[in-house]
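User: Before I run my own analysis I want an independent prediction to cross-check against. Here's the chain; please return only the C-alpha cells and, at the end, one sentence I can use as a sanity check.
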Amino acid sequence: MTATSALDSTAAPRSMPSLTALTRRVRARVKATEDPATAAYDRIMRRLGISIGIAGAIIGGGELPEVAEQGRYASVWWSVAAMALVFGWYPIIGVVSAVAGTKAIRFVCGCAAVSFLGALATIPLGFAPHTVDATNIWPYRVTALAVSAGVLAWSGRTTLIYLLAASASAALATVYTVGEVTPQHIIENFLRSAGLAALFLWCGTAAVGAAARVDRESAIASRRAAAQAAAQARDRERSRFAALIHDAVLSTLLEASRAGAESDVVRRQAERTLEQLDEYRGAERDPDLLDARSALLFLRAAVQEINPSIRFATRTWPGFDDLRMPVHSASTIAAALTEAVKNSLRHAAVPGREVRRTVTATVSAGSIRIVFSDNGAGFDLAAVSADRLGISMSILGRMRQLAGGSAFVESQPGEGTTVTLVWGGDGSR
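Assistant: C-alpha cells:
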C-alpha cells in the first residue's frame, strides 16, 4: 500500500534554473571550448564581440526615429530590409560571443560587415535620386560599427580595404540620395566616415594584437619553465643518485674489501644498501608538476619541433585546472607522441595525395588524452614484425611503464593510423 500511495502522489514541480545557475553553465561551456594556448586572444575576442553586439542593438534603437523620418522618401520594403541587414546581426554577435568560440564569432561578424555593404548596394532600389532632405542618409552614420565587426572577422589589411570600400560606398549613397550635394560635401563625408572608422579599426586591431602577443609570450614562458623544471629535476636526480652511490654502494664495497671474511656488520650494511636502491627505484623521483596549460604547451612544442605544420587541437572540460602532471610523465608522453609523429612522417606517405596529420589533446579533471591521427597509407598491425620496436617499445612500452599511462594503436591499410595516449594521473591503468 505504501508503494501505491507513493506512485499516486503528485510529483513536485521542477523549478526553473536561476539566472546565476544559467550563467555558471554558460561560463563552464565557454571554458570547456577555450584553448589554453590562445586563452587571451579568445577572451578579448569574446569581450569585444559582446560589446559590439550590445552597441549594435543600442545604436539600432537610437536610429529608429531617423529611419522613420527618411522612410518617407523610400519604399517601405527597403526600410525594413535595410534595418535587418544593418542591425540584425548584432544581437546574434552578442549571443554567439557569449557561448561559442572565436571561429563562430569571426563568421557572424563577417556576415554583419558584408550585410552592411548589401544595405548600401540596395539604396538605388529603394530611393529616387536626390530626394532626401538631409545632409546624409542614416546608414552612413553606422559605418564605424560595421568596420568594428570587420576587425573581429578579418586581418588588419583586409579590414582596411573594407573600411575604404564602406566609407566610399556610404559617401556615394549620400551623393545619390541627398538633394543638394557639392564636391566639398562629398569629400567631407568620406573623410569623416573613414576617420571615425579608422579610429575603431586601430583600437580593435591593437586590442586583438596585444592579446595574441600575450599568448605568444605566455607560451614561450611556459615552455621555458617546463624545460627549466625538467632540467632541475634531472640535476636533483643525478645528485641524489650520486650521493646514494657514494654513501651506500661504495661504502659497502669498501667495508667488504677490508673485512676479508664474512661479517655481520657488512651483511647488514649490504642489506640496507639494497633496501635504499629499491626505495630509490620505486619512489616518485620527480616532484615538479605541470598544470594543464603548461603540459599542453610542453606537448605542443614537442610535436611542432618535429613538424610545425601538424595541427595541434586542444579540448578542455570543467575541472581541467586540477590537472597536475609530473615533468617526467609529460616527458614520457611527449617522447611517445613524437615517435608516433616520426613513424607517420616516415611510413604514411601516399603518392599523389597530401597526408593530413592532427593531434587532439583532451584535458579533464586529473587526466589527459592525446590522439594522433593521419589519413595516410596505414598498415596491418598483425603483420608488424616483432623486431620493429617503434610501436611496441617506443610508444606502447613507454606509456604502459608510466604510472597511470596506457596507449592504443589502430590502423588499417589505406585507412590511416590513430595513436591514442592516455594518462590518468592516479596510477590506475
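Sanity check: The radius of gyration is 33 Å.
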